[in-house]
Amino acid sequence: MIKNIILASASPRRKELLSELIIGFDVEVRPVEEVYPSHLQREEITDYLAKLKAQPYAEDIEDDTLVITADTIVWHEGKAFGKPKNIGEGAEMLRSLSGKTHEVITSVCFTTKESQTVAHCISRVTFNPISEVLIDWYLRTYIVTDWAGAYAIQGFIGAAVVASIEGSYNNVVGLPTHIIYDYLTKMK
Questions:
Q1: Local structure of residue 187 (DSSP, 8 states)
Q2: Whole-structure pTM over 0.90, yes or no?
């Protein structure tokens, strides 16, 4: 029986979303180099990285503990956009997404002493066109290196640029809470 839940993520957004489902979990982050094989595509990337983030916990996980890890990417025109390395890369991402539809893919990995399960969610987000002036202002105003695809749906981009979302809003924020709810209810 699971008594302890660890969210293995430094993301304040993931912590906030999980707190809407669960009272009393711990946040613990063990560093891992987030590198994946170049042949992986779409949800294969996020599945791989979510499992990779769980590896540092594998040896010392307790019998009554569940570790939750997650990874999010933006998938657009055959390319994975993670967190941009710098403002220039963030600008390229926003220009590429401008006026188009992309996918936001998040995988969640559930690891216990006995098992590991991975599930993913895909949402489609359509942006209105974004002017160069707006991109420049956005890059000077927000820390885009914190977000996959260089944007946060819950901020200015969501309010001013997003034309539509198909699928889970929480997935686009970074944690598809319905997947966690389904997993936890099936455990009981």
A1: H
A2: yes
